[in-house]
From TrEMBL:
GO terms for cellular component: plasma membrane. It is found in: Cell membrane. Residues 40-211 form the AAA+ ATPase domain. It is a peripheral membrane protein. GO terms for molecular function: ATP binding; ATP hydrolysis activity. Keywords: ATP-binding, Cell membrane, Ion transport, Iron, Iron transport, Membrane, Nucleotide-binding, Transport. This is ABC transporter ATP-binding protein.
Length: 241
């Protein structure tokens, strides 16, 4: 089980919706329900359907904490597109400790750009050679190369990882969390969500609320498919034959 930690780097956040009256963010039901949000564990997973707002919130947290919107450490300063939400400007982060230099924001959708920029920001380091690795190898190299106590924000890290590599990441996160690091992760992976004693926040049209592992869609749908594969496929494909 994860150790009980009273010294989270980020303990919560507040959103001033008066600053976002004309923003599309205010029309996302799950996000609009948030005035304040507290984190209670060193590992927090954000779950929900595509478009539910979990990645938008994660990006807002990252930018409000001083990270580059496209990923990297807080030293990365590059921009290849201007498509970030304005949520961060209305967000106050409740921070109890400094965000250490090893801290990192990783989002799957901008991995290629991040790998390119790492040549400049990681002179001579392992990350400067990301383009020489496969997508999955490079992705895991980023995740495993950061071992210092810090804040780690990850958006769908499972997208580049095999099932076995997801287990490797789970073990890495568990060890680092017990050493004092904090993770906030948006994911659909039933494997990562299985990390013992993690906090799971579910995003839906009714707001943001705590959720048990067995109640997540990722777990339930995967379980049904594995246990009843033939009947599920028959139901899905019967109109295609």
């Amino acid at each position: 089980m994860l150790k009980s930690m009273d010294d989270l780097i980020v303990s919560g956040l507040r959103i001033d919706w008066n600053m976002l009256t004309d923003s599309y963010v205010s029309r996302i039901p799950s996000l609009r329900s948030i005035d304040e949000l507290e984190f209670h564990k060193n590992v927090t997973f954000l779950v929900g359907e595509n478009g539910s707002g979990k990645s938008t919130l994660l990006e807002g947290i990252a930018v409000a904490c001083g990270f580059n919107a496209e990923g990297g450490t807080r030293n990365y300063r590059f921009s290849t597109y201007d498509d970030t939400s304005d949520l961060a400007k209305a967000m106050t982060i409740y921070r109890q400790y400094a965000i250490g230099p090893s801290s990192f924001f990783l989002r799957a959708e901008s991995y290629f750009t991040l790998a390119t920029q790492a040549r400049e920001y990681d002179h001579g380091g392992g990350l400067a050679r990301l383009h020489e690795m496969s997508h999955g190898e490079g992705f895991l190299e980023i995740l495993l190369s950061h071992t210092g106590k810090g804040l780690y924000l990850m958006d769908e890290p499972e997208s580049a990882l095999s099932t076995q590599r997801q287990l490797t990441l789970l073990e890495h996160m568990y060890r680092m969390a017990n050493d004092g690091s904090q993770f906030i992760v948006a994911t659909h992976s039933p494997i990562l969500l299985g990390l013992p004693d993690a906090e799971i926040l579910s995003f839906d049209e009714n707001g943001v609320h705590p959720c048990d592992y067995e109640d997540t869609d990722s777990y339930q749908i995967t379980r049904v498919f594995i246990n009843h594969r033939e009947s599920v496929l028959r139901h899905l494909l019967e109109d295609e034959t």
